[in-house]
Design brief:
Length: 119
Amino acid sequence: MISGQISQIARTVQDLPRARAFWRDTLGLPEVMVFPGLAFFDLGGTRLMLRETGELGPADILYLAVNDIAGVHAMLAAKGLTVTGTPHMIHRHADGREEWMAFFKDDEGRHLALHEVRG
């Protein structure tokens, strides 16, 4: 039976040492383990596997959950990351909860997103 939870997401990177520094030092995510050509990070119970390819390939956008989208967005901008736009509400649910998004670029210029649910 499939649990419905994602256990791991794979993302290719051009340069693993640079990518490890970005995810670990810039974003502050816990590094779980490292093997030749691979690094694993904990995304709140889901593992992110970075696989070095030596090429800059396409990547899906990962939406990273935060509790203070404005504060995290400002922190990333202060660290010199390319932020694209400001945090903005994208949807209000019937029960009043709000979905907020903000986008930024990783160390290889590919998009990542911040996601906050308010209310």
